[in-house]
Amino acid sequence: MPDSIEQHSAAGGARGAHATSRPFGGLIDAVIVPSPTSFDFDGAVAAKHAEAAWVWMHRDLAPDLLGDLPDDEEAARALIDGHVPVLLQRAKAAIADAANKPESLRRIKVQFGGEPAWLRLPVVLQALKCRAILEKAQVFGRAANSMTDEAALGLALQSMPLTDAAVTALLMHVAVGQVSNPSRLTTAVLRIAGSASEGPVHRAGFSPLIDAMLSHAQAQLPALDQIGAFADIDLVCRSVDRFHRLVRAVSGYLELGRFSRWAMIIAGLTKTMSELIEPKLANVAPDVNRALRRRGDGLPDRIDSDQLLQALNGCYILATVRDCRDSLALNALFEKTWTQVGQTIELHMQRNLDAFRANPADHIAAERLDATIKMAELRFNTEYADVIRKARDSAERRAG
């Protein structure tokens, strides 16, 4: 089916759906990941596919049950939760009917918004079926952060229902979302498996855990698709750092075959993440230069706040990439940008410090020097920045 028809169908369904702001009232939010996704995992469903499933159930499968939801989200959630057993029965019957009737299958795929979303319906249904234990998996993930004993963590992991792959995939995804240091999970799994090779990890039943890490790594990508002055740079940096932690928890500990599924997924995710970061690094040095230099041509000196913010944001991203470069494919660009930014900051540091010493009362010179110091702290270290702060404070004292 052409993309335009699929998108129109999904959009039309979304407009027809009554308003809870989240699919299924938030019952399965813990397994919903941002769209788009390049790789599908059994423990997660893309937001657009969850929305398609919700629209289908609301509009086509159970309008009698879901057609008049209350405006209050908690009340709507409770009402939906009470109807889940019937929704699951009706969905199962619809799937069985479509399997035997090609025309019914074609029609239901159109209702659903296309085949890609239809193929993810089993994950949505499994998540609804397991909704009561998803919160327990979140509690497990948070508890894992405080487990200092690797053996205890291993026993806790083995308490998961590893024999049911579909359920395990969901629970592992939910749990990993709460774990701050996923490498600890990997080391515990390798100890249980008795090997760092993929085969023993598969046989021990922990493939869903590795999948969950890669799924969460993929979920960091959309945060980088931001441009302009209103981009949330803090979110960008946190997402890059989280991506690094998740990818390193797999590639840094497991012995992956060159063409294994996990290796290919990591390669694809690394390529995409690096491509998203690359344009953000490319202009950091020019931005820093423009933000820190004094205006020429006899024009009145002033601080361009937007330019200064853009330069600072670039320095934050650069510092984050420095810490996460082992999980990225940006070595050449990073080295070039790192060197250029260092040289630019050192050049303007001396100029701006001299300008401040000449006239400590000049608030523009003071603001520009403060910005230079902050960028130096990000590019070099706190000790270097503190030396310049002391020189600034000394100049202020001398000025009285």
Question: Can you put this structure into words, describing what you see?
Answer:
With 400 residues, this protein is mostly helical. It folds into three domains: 127 residues, no CATH class; 123 residues, no CATH class; 117 residues, no CATH class. The protein has a two-stranded parallel sheet with strand order 1-2. Helix 17 packs across helix 18, helix 17 runs parallel beside helix 19 and helix 19 packs antiparallel against helix 20. The longest helix has 28 residues. It starts with a helix and ends with a helix. The relative contact order is 0.07.
Overall 3D shape = elongated
Q: Helical stretch count?
A: 20
Enumerate the spans where pLDDT stays under 50 for 5 or more consecutive residues: 1-19
How much helicity do the residues have?
over 70%
Give me the secondary-structure category: mainly alpha
**Helix/strand order, N-terminal first:** HEEHHHHHHHHHHHHHHHHHHH
Number of strands: 2
- Major sheet description: 2 strands, parallel
Radius of gyration: 26 Å
- Average the pLDDT over all residues and give the rounded result: 90
Please indicate the count of domains: 3
Distance between the termini: 76 Å
What multimeric state do the chains show? single chain
Percent of residues in β-strands: under 5%
Largest sheet, order of strands side by side? 1-2
